[in-house]
């Protein structure tokens, strides 16, 4: 009987707090909290072995989501800065993905609700830990994408990160890559994101963009400018003649993007320009 392994045992005795199981030589406790369904003395059960907080071996009828031989998506339930991320592995106790196995930058660590593709590791002293799947492990799960998915929306979960960008496994099974130039904010490890396929590679992988399409970006930029004008009472000291650096500093937009957004607002009749300033059009529903 070893932590992290399964065995089929016989129910030997019922006590107030649970059942004692035996393999004919040794006995182990199955606590009432670890029982699934109705059981009775003499019945054979498949159980999984775990250590409690005092290093005592006990049995559970609960099935772990991952074992040392299997991988699966497990949900993050808590994150502790000096320890790492705790994940739900289907047992009474959560297991830890140590911080050394998480990204160097704390801001892209997973959050509660994110999912990690992992396996279970059992230490020499019987403690459970969780390890992230390597690229070689994830590879068999990939499915080749065809050209029909170009420009289509896909949703996937970040399973690996490098300096150049993030890798996702999509709901369809595609391996996707999000280059750092195709996002405004770096997604977290384990975060589920939705983006647009901007390239389908010969090897069946896809490149994905999290940036809005041009017409969507235009609307977002225009509303950002309009909101800034609202804060200033309907006028701002910027126009399509303003300095590119000033525009970049204030709106985080290129001058070209700013001019497109401003032109969009003018075409809608919501604003007008005069002597280097932009004003709300009083006839619009500002």
Automatic annotation (TrEMBL):
SMART domains: S1 (SM00316). It comes from the Bacteria. InterPro entries: CvfB_fam (IPR014464), CvfB_S1_2nd (IPR048588), CvfB_S1_3rd (IPR048587), CvfB_S1_st (IPR039566), CvfB_WH (IPR040764), NA-bd_OB-fold (IPR012340), S1_domain (IPR003029), WH-like_DNA-bd_sf (IPR036388). GO terms for molecular function: nucleic acid binding. Signal peptide: none annotated. PANTHER family: CONSERVED VIRULENCE FACTOR B. Belongs to the CvfB family. This is Uncharacterized protein. The lineage of its organism: Bacteria, Bacillati, Bacillota, Bacilli, Bacillales.
């Amino acid at each position: 009987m070893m932590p992290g392994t399964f065995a089929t045992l016989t129910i030997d005795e019922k006590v107030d707090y649970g059942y004692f199981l035996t393999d004919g030589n040794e006995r182990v406790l199955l606590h009432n909290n670890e029982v699934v369904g109705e059981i009775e003395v003499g019945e054979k059960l498949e159980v999984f072995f775990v250590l409690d907080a005092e290093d005592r071996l006990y049995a559970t009828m609960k099935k772990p989501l991952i074992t040392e031989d299997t991988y699966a998506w497990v949900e993050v339930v808590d994150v502790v800065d000096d320890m790492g991320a705790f994940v739900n592995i289907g047992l009474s106790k959560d297991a830890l993905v140590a911080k050394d196995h998480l990204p160097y930058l704390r801001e892209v660590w997973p959050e509660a609700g994110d999912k990690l593709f992992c396996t279970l590791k059992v230490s020499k002293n019987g403690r459970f830990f969780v390890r992230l799947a390597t690229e070689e492990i994830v590879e068999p799960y990939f499915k080749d994408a065809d050209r029909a998915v170009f420009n289509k929306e896909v949703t996937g979960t970040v399973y690996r990160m490098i300096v150049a960008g993030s890798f996702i496994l999509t709901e369809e099974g595609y391996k996707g890559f999000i280059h750092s130039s195709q996002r405004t904010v770096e997604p977290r490890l384990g975060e589920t994101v939705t983006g647009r396929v901007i390239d389908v590679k010969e090897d069946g992988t896809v490149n994905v963009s999290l940036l809005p399409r041009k017409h969507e970006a235009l609307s977002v930029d225009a509303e950002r400018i309009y909101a800034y004008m609202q804060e200033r009472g309907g006028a701002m000291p910027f126009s399509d003649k303003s300095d590119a650096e000033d525009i970049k500093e204030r709106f985080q937009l290129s001058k070209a993007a700013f001019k497109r957004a401003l032109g969009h607002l003018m075409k809608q009749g919501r604003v007008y320009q005069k002597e280097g300033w932009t004003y709300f059009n009083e006839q619009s529903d500002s």
